[in-house]
Specification:
The chain has 212 residues and is α/β, with parallel strands linked by helices. The protein is built from nine helices and six strands. The structure holds magnesium ion.
Amino acid sequence: MAFDACFFDLDGTLYDSRCGMLDRINQLIDEWILRVIPMPREKVSSFRHDMFQKYGGTLPGLAVEYGSDYYASLRYCHNLKVEDFVSENPELRSLLLQLPGRKYILTTSYRFYAVRVLKALGILECFDGIIDAVDVFPAPKPAPEAFQRALQITAETDVRKCAFLDDQPRNAAAAHKEGFFAVQVGTEYPGDPLADAWIPKIEDLRSIPELY
Ligand SMILES: [Mg+2]
C-alpha cells in the first residue's frame, strides 16, 4: 500500500549528517546565542540543551524567551555554502521520482536554506512543498502542533494515508503518535521501537514495502 503523501525531514535524513554541514550550523547557532545573551562560552551547550527540551530548538527558544529576531537568526545560522558539504545524489533522485504520492519537506530549518540544499542534492523538483521553521513557529517537531500544521498547510486530510521520515527518534515517535506511518532514518539511533519502520540510510527507501 502506497501513501497519499510522504513528509521528509531534511537535515541528517536526506543527506548524511556526518558531512559536516550540521557542525557548521551548530557553530553559527552558538555564535548567535552569544550575540543575543552574553554568557560564558562553556555555558552555551547546556543552554542549548534546555532550549531544545523546552522549545524543540534553540532559535525558537531565543525568540520566545529573549526577543531574538527569528528571521534574522534563521538567516544568520544558515548562511553557509551548502555545496561545500553536499552534492548531487542521482540514486536518491531516482528513488524519489519512483515513490508514489505527494512529497513534502517538513524541516525545522529555514526555507531558503532548504531550497539550496535540495538544489545541491539535485532533488528540488521531486517535492511538492516545504514546511519550514517559520511555518511551525513556535512549536517545531516533535510538538504535535508541528505535524498538525504540516497537514493543514498541505491540505492532507487523512493522516493515516501519510508517511513521515526523520533521523531523530523523538520526531519519528511523535509522528507515529499523531497517526503517521513513521520511518526512522540513520544509523545513529538504530531500531527505535516507537517508529513503524527503520532504514540505515535514505537510499534504502525501497526496502520499506509500505512506501512503494
Ligand atoms: Mg534531522
